[in-house]
Design a protein that fits this description.
Elements lengths: L1 H28 L3 H33 L2 H28 L5 H21 L1 H27 L2 H4 L1 H18 L1 E3 L2 E7 L2 E3 L1 H17 L5 H20 L3 H19 L3 H20 L1 H11 L10 H13 L22 H9 L1 H24 L3 H25 L17 H32 L22 H9 L53 E2 L6 E3 L6 E2 L20 E2 L6 E2 L26
Antiparallel strand pairs: 1-2, 2-3, 4-5, 5-6, 7-8
Helix pairs in contact: 1-2, 1-15, 2-3, 2-4, 3-4, 3-5, 4-5, 5-17, 7-8, 7-9, 8-9, 8-10, 8-16, 8-17, 9-10, 10-11, 10-16, 11-12, 13-14, 14-15, 15-16, 16-17
């Protein structure tokens, strides 16, 4: 019965993950808030269900072996980790209600997968990883606020470069050697891998060089600075991290310049660097030869990679079931080959869906990079998104034998305290930039709600009666005796003396459709026969049957003119009186001057 439940459990995990993957990509496309919020709650629920299902399968596996002590430990860890993930998501959403919730949900999901697989591989390492993640989550809560509020980092970007380069040089000089490479340094009894954190500083530093003014001089400066970082990593033999920095740099250059030829240049330079590394470093040649043919030395240099391939092949499409595989046969399985352990027990389908979700996570950050208006933060997010995507590709690709092994970890899933803390800080930086993006959207909404200051700039649009009008429009309303309280859907405030040619109650899109019927209503003093209409959209005019004169449907307070406007100061001269018809009240000798015979032709243009 227990084996049957474990067998059912692995299929249930695949179904839950498949549905979660579909929802993740669907939520990335949705733009309406109500629909997105509903999807986010559904996604978060699926994360907790999937985590519970995985821990339940692990519990059944230990119960089948008769290990009651491990059963109680798994149940306790399930409860504590579930509370931690739920509390983290609630705290983040409470303090940052405008953050990107899809990024938040995906972060919790990746942590849940890491909790299950790390506890399956090693309980001791899992407890250590859990304690590090708790501290990392507390730190990461404050980072979005710092990025959002602290603008000094944009002004003093060179400080991040100095700190980053100094940290890498310190590792090269004082760091301990691990597997032939200087990766870590011990501070107060704790071991850190500074290159994990320098990735974030590197993104801020290069963005500071590229965002203001781009020219060839800036590109050369950025290239030289990036070369310093990469070369320090190379001589430290941390080649996997050096490759990540290299790819980050050219992705950020492309975002900063929009020139694809730099990507091609970077690709060519990368291939040349690979050839040079093969010739210069013996351990690079060993890894390359192992990647080409791991079976030749299967008991030595090829053992790690061949065991990974065996584990993936043994799992098949649906896996052996959580707790029923042999992940311990792969050296360094918790760090470099965690994906192989997942596929062995959960199946190739589960692994493929996990890859899609990692891509989804990267796409979300790339979308944010494309939408934010601030060029500096756009370049920063581009670098961080490519950093995450490159790290995922190197880890999974190495385990699948698509590329040579690089020794980098799978973010939030592999074991490693520095990797977990750095990844959560990276994600929090992206969330902080997302808050800046929300500020940009709010500012755009305010700009769109402003009314044009003059009629020349005004468009035909719907204006609510409660909309605050600029002071200069109110002043003009007094000069023309315009009733500013009267509702006008076309953006003009009509007086009781004349109509502007737009039906305020029935015509809502007069400025957009030239075919809408427009009409002019004359005051009694007009003395004109307005039987013929010739519409030209907003500039509609009428032609009198008896006189070769053109009128625009306006009448001054004293019937003084039909004006010809070419700007604010343009005037129309009455041929008979010589008075200026400037739109203000003049003192004509006769109120019926416009009813007298007039000669010539006047072309009237309405504002």
């Amino acid at each position: 019965m227990i084996l049957f439940l474990i067998e059912i459990g692995k299929y249930l995990n695949i179904i839950l993950l498949a549905f979660y993957t579909l929802l993740s990509f669907f939520a990335m496309k949705r733009r309406d808030d109500d629909g997105r919020n509903g999807l986010f709650y559904l996604l978060e629920t699926h994360v907790y269900l999937l985590f519970t299902s995985g821990m339940a399968c692990l519990t059944l596996s230990y119960y089948d072996r008769g290990d009651s002590e491990m059963v109680s430990k798994v149940i306790m860890m399930w409860a504590v980790e579930l509370v931690l993930m739920f509390a983290y998501s609630r705290v983040m959403y409470h303090f940052y209600p405008e953050l990107n919730r899809l990024i938040l949900v995906q972060t919790v999901f990746m942590m849940s997968i890491g909790f299950v697989v790390q506890f399956r591989i090693s309980q001791q390492k899992a407890l250590r990883q859990f304690s590090i993640i708790v501290v990392s989550l507390v730190i990461s809560v404050f980072i979005p606020m710092i990025v959002h509020r602290l603008k000094l980092i944009k002004k003093f970007w060179y400080v991040t470069g100095i700190i980053g380069a100094g940290a890498l040089i310190a590792v090269f000089a004082l760091g301990a050697i691990t597997n032939g490479a200087k990766l870590s340094i011990k501070i107060f009894g704790l071991i850190f891998q500074p290159s994990e954190f320098v990735k974030i500083l590197f993104a801020f530093f290069i963005a500071g060089i590229l965002y203001e003014i781009y020219n060839m001089k800036r590109f050369i400066i950025a290239s030289v600075c990036a070369a310093v970082f990469v070369m320090v990593l190379v001589i430290s033999r941390d080649l996997g991290m050096a490759l990540i920095f290299y790819v980050m740099f050219f992705a950020m250059v492309y975002m900063g310049t929009g020139r694809f030829r730099y990507v091609l240049l970077g690709t060519a330079g990368g291939l040349a660097a690979v050839v040079a590394a093969y010739a210069m470093f013996s351990h690079v040649r060993v890894r390359f030869n192992t990647w080409i043919d791991p079976w030749t030395d299967i008991d030595s240099t090829g053992y790690q990679l061949t065991q990974s391939i065996f584990a993936i092949g043994t799992g098949g499409w649906y896996g052996r079931g959580i707790g029923r595989g042999l992940p311990g046969t792969i050296p360094e399985v918790g760090e470099d080959f965690v994906f192989s352990a997942i596929v062995e027990e959960s199946g190739a389908l589960f692994g493929m869906l996990l890859i899609l979700l990692c891509l989804n996570f990267c796409f979300i950050m790339l979308l944010l990079a494309g939408r934010i208006k601030d060029k500096y933060y756009r370049i920063v997010v581009m670098g961080l998104a490519v950093c995450y995507g490159t790290q995922v590709f190197l880890t999974i690709g190495g385990g699948l034998r698509l590329i040579p092994l690089t020794g980098v970890t799978l973010p939030l899933i592999s074991s490693g305290g520095s990797s977990a803390l750095a990844t959560l800080c990276l994600i929090s930086v992206v969330q902080g930039v997302g808050l800046i993006r929300m500020d940009e959207i709010y500012g755009d909404d305010e700009d769109d709600s402003e009314i044009a200051e003059t009629e020349d700039e005004a468009e035909i649009c719907d204006i609510d009666e409660n909309t605050e009008k600029p002071d200069d429009i109110e002043d003009d309303a007094e000069d023309y005796d315009i009733d500013s309280d009267e509702d006008s859907s076309d953006g003009y405030y009509d007086s009781d003396d004349f109509d502007d040619g737009y039906d305020d109650e029935e015509v809502s899109d007069a400025g957009e459709d030239d075919d809408d019927e427009l009409y002019d209503e004359y005051a009694e003093e007009s003395c004109l026969d307005n039987d013929d209409y010739e519409d030209e959209g907003p500039d509609a005019y009428e032609k009198s049957e008896t006189e070769e004169e053109y009128y625009d449907g306006y009448e001054d307070k004293d019937g003084a003119y039909d004006s010809e406007y070419e700007g604010e100061d343009a005037v129309s001269i009455n041929d008979d009186t010589g008075f200026e018809a400037d739109g203000y009240e003049d003192e004509p000798e006769d109120d019926d001057l416009m009813c007298e015979d007039q000669e010539g032709e006047r072309n009237v243009k309405r504002k």
